[in-house]
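user: Kindly work through both lines:
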Amino acid sequence: MDNILINAHSILRWAVLLFGLYAITKSARGLIKNQEYTQNHKMAATLFVASMHLQVLLGLLLYVSRGWMNQFSDMANAMGNSTIRFWTVEHIFGMILAAVLIQIGSTKSKKATDVRKKHKTALTFFTIGMIIILATIPWPFRGEVARSLWP
C-alpha cells in the first residue's frame, strides 16, 4: 500500500506542476491581453486546484502511514535533524500552505467582478503557490531529502 501511495504521489507531482504552469500562463495571458475570464480560465484554475488537493490528500495519507506525525513527541530532536524536519514540518506545511493559497486565488478570482482583477488575483495567488511548491519538493539535488524525478 505504501509503495502505491508514494508512486501515485510522485507521478501526480507532474500533473500539479503542469496544471499550475497552465493556470499561471492562462492568467498572465488574460491579464496582458485584457481577455475575458472564460470557461477555459476557470477550467485551468479548477485543474490546478483539484490536482493540488488530490496531491495533498495523498501526501497526508503518506504522512500518517509512514509515521511522520510520531515525530511530534520529540520535536526538539526532529527540529535538530534536517531530514526529519523537512518531512515532519517543512514539506507538509509548505504544500498545505500552497494548496490554501491556490484555493483562495481560485475562489477570489471567480468572485471578482472586474476582468483584470480576476486575472491578476489568479496570477498572484497561483504564482506564489507554485513558488512554494517548487521550494518544498524533494528534488534530486536536495541532498539527504532528495527523491527521484520519477518513481
